[in-house]
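In the design runs reported in the main text, the only information available to the sequence generator was the tokenized backbone. The following block is the verbatim input for one such run; it is reproduced so that readers can re-run the procedure and compare outputs position by position.
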């Protein structure tokens, strides 16, 4: 008989399986990302009772089964974040954060700080205490925890100040100065104001950005993330459609 596993978890996503079951992707504090088979989840209102909604914070009771997928035997909801679920912009940010974490992590690799950061952001989002700039801060922290650190100052190639005509090249790891621009052919112009705002945010400064600066910063991070993941996150378009970014 396998030893029961109890894990603190956030629901990243779930997909229907067969007529009554679901495969749930969890981000656990103790074991990192993992998949769990929830038998009868689509029919049993007693066992899971809405606990498998995206983003739900729960205590999961799991058991090993054949293959890599665990069996989800039961859950206790810690926080459902129900207050944000009737607000499309906040739903869009929720889904974006969950997709980002799902793509940045690997199965069975614990990321305690990343888990805590996601949970804390969702708490603030639910309480309407997370403005648009805080999403950029969450992304930068998540990228750093996952081992990806875009460079906004100094130049990613020569280490010198980027000056007043910087370019951003995800392939080179960040912002490059005008002198290094020929070595970064895929780079694109970005204002020094945006670069400085992102550098301050990366350093932990929490000053809200002006909408136009924030929009350009969002484009920069979208490019950087898409380059390292090999694709654009699906939830980016949804955020744009509902004005959540």
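Verbatim output:
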């Amino acid at each position: 008989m396998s030893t029961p596993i109890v894990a603190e978890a956030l629901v990243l996503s779930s997909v229907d399986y067969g007529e009554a079951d679901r495969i749930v992707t969890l981000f656990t504090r103790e074991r990192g990302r993992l998949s769990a088979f929830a038998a009868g989840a689509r029919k049993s209102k007693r066992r899971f009772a809405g606990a498998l909604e995206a983003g739900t914070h729960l205590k999961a009771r799991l058991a090993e089964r054949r293959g890599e997928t665990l069996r989800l035997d039961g859950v206790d909801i810690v926080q459902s974040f129900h207050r944000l679920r009737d607000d499309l912009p906040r739903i869009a940010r929720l889904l974006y954060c969950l997709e980002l974490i799902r793509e940045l992590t690997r199965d069975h690799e614990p990321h305690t700080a990343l888990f805590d950061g996601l949970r804390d952001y969702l708490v603030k989002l639910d309480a309407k205490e997370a403005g648009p700039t805080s999403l950029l801060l969450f992304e930068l922290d998540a990228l750093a925890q996952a081992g990806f650190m875009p460079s906004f100052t100094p130049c990613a190639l020569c280490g010198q100040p980027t000056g007043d005509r910087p370019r951003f090249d995800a392939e080179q790891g960040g912002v490059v100065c005008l002198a290094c621009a020929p070595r970064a052919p895929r780079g694109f112009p970005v204002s020094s104001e945006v670069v400085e705002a992102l550098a301050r945010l990366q350093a932990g400064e929490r000053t809200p950005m002006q909408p136009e600066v924030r929009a350009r910063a969002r484009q920069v991070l979208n490019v950087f993330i898409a380059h390292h993941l090999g694709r654009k996150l699906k939830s980016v378009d949804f955020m744009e459609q509902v004005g959540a970014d």
